[in-house]
Write a structure and sequence with these properties.
This protein has about 280 residues and is an alpha+beta fold. The chain folds into three domains: about 50 residues, Uridine Diphospho-n-acetylenolpyruvylglucosamine Reductase, domain 2 (2-Layer Sandwich), CATH 3.30.43; about 110 residues, Uridine Diphospho-n-acetylenolpyruvylglucosamine Reductase, domain 3, CATH 3.30.465; about 100 residues, CO dehydrogenase flavoprotein, C-terminal domain (Enolase-like, domain 1), CATH 3.30.390. Helices cover about 35% and strands about 25% of the residues. A five-stranded antiparallel sheet has the order 4-5-10-6-7. Strands 11-12-13-14 form a four-stranded antiparallel sheet, sandwiched between helices. A hairpin with a 2-residue loop joins β6 and β7. α3 packs across α4. The structure holds flavin-adenine dinucleotide (FAD). Flavin-adenine dinucleotide binds next to β2, α2, α6 and β10.
Amino acid sequence: MIPFDFEYYKPSSVHMAVELFQLLQNQGKKPVYYAGGTEIITWARTNSIQPGAVINLNSIPECSVMGIQKDKLVIGACVTLSALSEANPFPLLSQTAQGVADQTARNKITLGGNICGKIYYREAVLPLLLANSRMIIAGIHGIREVSIHQVFLQQLRLENGEFLVQTFTDQYYLSLPFVHYKKRQIGNVGYPLVTVAALKQDNQIHTAYSGVCSFPFRSIEIDQVLNSSSIPLAARIEQAISKLPGSIIHNTEGSAPYRKFVLKQTMADTIHILERR
Ligand SMILES: Cc1cc2nc3c(=O)[nH]c(=O)nc-3n(C[C@H](O)[C@H](O)[C@H](O)COP(=O)(O)OP(=O)(O)OC[C@H]3O[C@@H](n4cnc5c(N)ncnc54)[C@H](O)[C@@H]3O)c2cc1C
């Protein structure tokens, strides 16, 4: 049960959603955008958040799109992870989505919710970082299209009242050789110890990580080291580890030394597989 009252809105256009947000905020109602609701409902039940209003984005047509438009794969922010895996327009993204939570939760969890959520794994962003995707963001001043690298820095940096409408990915990236590994403490469901997504482009391996630091990331420096094929692999991996952009997570899923061990092994597996493709 959610132990407080809140107002519920379901606008049918991007414009209505941003206007509503502005209006409700001016009324002091602390509105939040709502997609799959899995995180919002979980936190509201425990009183960790107390929005006075929620704005459900699911009736906005642009947010439910999934398909190719002019050589680009367009995915609406409200497309669920289940729908993404089933349609499989970008195999690396589908495989990554398939690794998040369980089937019941994935039927609700959306691409936008996973990327914008507070739970810091945000695994679905990894393929988009590797494919240099572009983000379509709506706010009170209109719509902006920006490179993911400009707005996703540890988390999606949205201005007050903005929301993610869609992602655009060049068709070129969709069929590149890839690998995806999600290593958990136990079983096939649960948060990652280490998730690695990687693409091979022009004979270079590009990698992105979740579960290692308290934010998902892609690092050009790590990729440079991992691709230095004149150096023995074990030495490359040691150097790559020294270039991590933050400290390694230490939590109930796994200690930092154990995560480091798993990360090294997963990096080695990734390089072995992709060097041969
Ligand atoms: C059982 C369970 C297991 C999980 N396991 C994993 C896992 O293994 N790996 C992983 O990466 N994550 C995992 N998660 C986290 C999950 O992916 C996130 O909680 C995600 O936010 C939920 O998506 P949603 O669509 O339900 O978002 P919601 O609950 O609707 O929203 C979450 C947050 O994102 C904001 N938001 C939603 N859509 C938008 C948008 N389009 N633009 C701007 N802001 C938006 C909301 O305002 C809210 O702050 C798990 C969650 C659950 C419940």
